[in-house]
Amino acid sequence: MSESRPEPGTPMIVQWRKWDGSPHWANEVVYLGQDRWGVWVGQPTGWRNTRPGREFAAPGPNVTLIPHPDSVRGAADLALTVNRRHPKGMRIYIDLAWDLRWTGPADAEDDLPVLARGIDMDLDVVRVEGERGTWVDDRDEWAEHLVRYGYPADVIAHLESLALDLEERVRARVAPFDDATADAWLDRLEALGLER
User: Which of 83, 113, 121, 185 is least buried, going by the fewest C-beta atoms within 10 A?
Assistant: First the structure.
């Protein structure tokens, strides 16, 4: 990620695509800031998430951490989203990613000054309040897309190992997967008063 950052509260899009380049989710967010873990963006209640054929508004405030880039690949391999007051009790949703990176103003589209982009890699780690707890989700989609997109063996091995590691860390609530780390950013988001 580049060193230049927008002011807190600046609207931006986190743009996802699939391995073959086809469009996936576009999430309306605002830039919040950064800490030792990476860059934090927030999504106020009512802000949009769209992909071809589907759209929904955020049911409650959430923040997403885009970790500092891996020193080898120069990009992050996950996006950690933490919800507050989610109607289904979903507290944590981690999208495993490939080539997730801050792109900056030079790659802006439409009226949005800043973008982050990445490839959604199917596997997710989820934590909900209640009995179900924490698990790796969308293994069926992962298996289907291994064949459809022909993921390279090193990508497969890395992400499968990462999913299991994240599941353990989320279950243990190790920072930044604890409540306190994200709650501080959720408080900053709500202080902006941007709900629709």
Answer: 113
Nearest to 100 by CA among 38, 22, 147, 160: 38
Sequence-ordered alpha helix ranges (H) in the chain: 139-149, 153-172, 179-191
Would the pTM of this model clear 0.85, i.e. be above it? yes
Number of domains in the chain: 1
Contacts of 150 (CB under 8 A, 6+ apart): none
Radius of gyration of the chain from its Cα atoms, rounded to whole angstroms: 16
Any idea what the CATH number is for the domain that residue 90 is in? 2.40.380.10
Q: Give the CA distances from residue 73 to residues 106, 113, 115, in Å, rounded to whole numbers and listed in that order.
A: 21, 25, 19
- What would the pLDDT profile of 131-152 be if each residue is shown by its tens digit? 999 999 999 999 999 999 999 9
